[in-house]
Amino acid sequence: MINKVLAYAQQHALFTLEDKIIATVSGGIDSVVLCDILHKLKITFCVAHANFGLRAEESDADELFVKKLAKKYNVPFYSEQFNTQEFAQQEKISTQMAARTLRYSWFEQLRQKLNYNYVATAHHQNDAAETILLNLTKGTGIAGLHGIAVKKEYLIRPLLCLSKDDIYEYVTENQLIWREDSSNESTKYQRNLIRHEVMPVLKKINPSLETTISQTVEKIQGAEQIYLAYINQVRQNAYRTEAGVTYLDLEPLRQATALPVVLFELLRDYNFNYDNTKAILETFAGISGKTFESATHVLVKDRDQLVITPKDLRVYGSFEINETDEYFEQPNLKLQIRRAAAENYQIPRGRQIAALDLNLLQFPLKIRPWKEGDWFVPLGMNGKKKLSDFFINEKIPVNLKNRIMVLTSDKSIVWIIGYRLDNRFKVTDKTEQVLELEIKP
């Protein structure tokens, strides 16, 4: 069994015998086997135990058992107690999700503090099979068919080559003791329901179910490499980003094979689900302006593109630029500020730079969000124009309008930042000093 785990680790480049590993140990049978195998491989490791405080005295007894286990192997022991239920209520997530979030965050903090190479969990083939069935039941893309990743950055699962039967065989041969978690028997948890009531039925059809699923996962991972290569090809043709805004051009998307699936993958990072994707697809042939929201982003169908912006980027209040400032920076805007003599000055092209007549400005200048009723005199024109009308003419998507800032001098708009100067403050042959402001990434 030990040689099987070592060969599996070498096959997937999980660790070397010289690496230092944090073993995550609950005290259950799986993590006890993980500890014993690391010990027999003579790997430098420590034991980390997360006490979630969900089972009162039973949780404390688990922690004491794991502490004694670490002493048995003569390795360092670390533990952390969490108020899991309070965290779950605060974040509005399930208790199981709260426990997962808390423990993995702590494991990684501990790894960095100790300067260890990896964090090892004791997941095995049965866990992977249960995860796949759970994902299929809830709905998933191809990524959900992996089950549990063998390695993800510093997190490793060296026991994924073993089944639960292998685990029981190992503890019997090595006369190991462990603690049973009473909550593992409760079918109120979805995973336990699959473990106790679904898996036994499937194993009647295929007694080697875990091994079969493990082999299927390997095939899926291979197919996914081809799948992701195609997704990335479409992404390169359709995707661009500017100043924190993502644009997806529709023409390359329309030519894509299996467009609903491709678009789902492209939008998944912005937390749009498959139902969102199908609704967004229906707008491809429609008029502009349709808006969709995920938990984190806003998407607008704008002519021949999709425009995606993070939520909560609207800025409130105003900011000042003083006469001697060389930089301006706030979360959504960074400006470099320069002064130059007008003689031999070449007025720059492009919307990212504003060249202004310094003598016409009154400091401090102010930067604020635009508001209804704002007007300016567009560069090259003599008459006033409302900003709202200017945005319509410029065909600016609604989710970008909310991000637009203006530069003002004594309440007069000098620059719609990133779009258009006001004609009254432009550089002319009478200008003596130039104030130049450039938008930086």
From TrEMBL:
Q: Which HAMAP family does the UniProt record give?
A: tRNA_Ile_lys_synt
UniProt domain Lysidine-tRNA(Ile) synthetase C-terminal: residue ranges: 365-437
Q: What is the lineage of its organism?
A: Bacteria, Pseudomonadati, Bacteroidota, Cytophagia, Cytophagales
Which CDD domains is this protein grouped with?
A: TilS_N
Positions with a binding annotation for ATP: 26-31
UniProt similarity note = Belongs to the tRNA(Ile)-lysidine synthase family.
Q: Looking at the UniProt record for this protein, which Gene Ontology cellular component terms does it annotate, in alphabetical order?
A: cytoplasm
**Keyword check for ATP-binding:** yes
The function of this protein is:
Ligates lysine onto the cytidine present at position 34 of the AUA codon-specific tRNA(Ile) that contains the anticodon CAU, in an ATP-dependent manner. Cytidine is converted to lysidine, thus changing the amino acid specificity of the tRNA from methionine to isoleucine.
Keywords carried by this UniProt record: ATP-binding, Cytoplasm, Ligase, Nucleotide-binding, tRNA processing
Domains as described in the record: The N-terminal region contains the highly conserved SGGXDS motif, predicted to be a P-loop motif involved in ATP binding.
Species of the source: Adhaeribacter aerolatus
User: Which molecular-function annotation in GO is an example for this chain?
Assistant: tRNA(Ile)-lysidine synthase activity
| Compartments, record wording | Cytoplasm
Q: What is its EC number?
A: 6.3.4.19
Could you give a single Gene Ontology term from the biological process aspect?
tRNA modification
Catalytic activity, reaction form: cytidine(34) in tRNA(Ile2) + L-lysine + ATP = lysidine(34) in tRNA(Ile2) + AMP + diphosphate + H(+)
Q: What is this protein called?
A: tRNA(Ile)-lysidine synthase
